[in-house]
Amino acid sequence: VIVTGSDDHLWKMWALPDGNIIMTGEGHADWLSGCCFHPSGTQLVTSSGDTTLRIWDFSKRGCILTLEGHAQAVRDCSWHSCGDFVASASMDNTSKIWDVNSERCRYTMCGHEDSVNSIEFLPFSNTVLTSSADKTLSLWDART
């Protein structure tokens, strides 16, 4: 499976090796910057220049949740291995940990001096790695 974004704010999921489109998502108001599959493979999170993240459910064939709270474009997103949390990296110099079940931001991580360009959970851990345009990498404990 391959997921691609485009300038028309759509994403498409393609099956391999036949190249058929499995699903198309529409809803972001600006460019798509990142996507990540839920650990169970039943959902997808996307990040966008419209400052939001969206969670897409494959069985419902659409967006089930929009997460808002960043002041600038969201550059990247990542699922925690338990599937209950999403991390986001933004051009507003912050990253956030979102509780999908309560549909709210749990933590905002501040400290980078420029845009946060990527974010990733260490598998089966509460450790988060961010990279920034300030030329630094940071390790965070998502619980604190």
UniProtKB/TrEMBL annotation:
<dbReference type="InterPro" id="IPR015943">
    <property type="entry name" value="WD40/YVTN_repeat-like_dom_sf"/>
</dbReference>
<keyword id="KW-0677">Repeat</keyword>
<protein>
    <submittedName>
        <fullName>SPG16 protein</fullName>
    </submittedName>
</protein>
<feature type="repeat" description="WD">
    <location>
        <begin position="67"/>
        <end position="108"/>
    </location>
</feature>
<dbReference type="Pfam" id="PF00400">
    <property type="entry name" value="WD40"/>
</dbReference>
<dbReference type="InterPro" id="IPR050995">
    <property type="entry name" value="WD-F-box_domain-protein"/>
</dbReference>
<feature type="repeat" description="WD">
    <location>
        <begin position="25"/>
        <end position="66"/>
    </location>
</feature>
<dbReference type="InterPro" id="IPR001680">
    <property type="entry name" value="WD40_rpt"/>
</dbReference>
<dbReference type="InterPro" id="IPR020472">
    <property type="entry name" value="WD40_PAC1"/>
</dbReference>
<dbReference type="InterPro" id="IPR019775">
    <property type="entry name" value="WD40_repeat_CS"/>
</dbReference>
<dbReference type="GO" id="GO:0035082">
    <property type="term" value="P:axoneme assembly"/>
</dbReference>
<dbReference type="GO" id="GO:1990716">
    <property type="term" value="C:axonemal central apparatus"/>
</dbReference>
<feature type="repeat" description="WD">
    <location>
        <begin position="1"/>
        <end position="24"/>
    </location>
</feature>
<dbReference type="InterPro" id="IPR036322">
    <property type="entry name" value="WD40_repeat_dom_sf"/>
</dbReference>
<feature type="repeat" description="WD">
    <location>
        <begin position="109"/>
        <end position="144"/>
    </location>
</feature>
<keyword id="KW-0853">WD repeat</keyword>
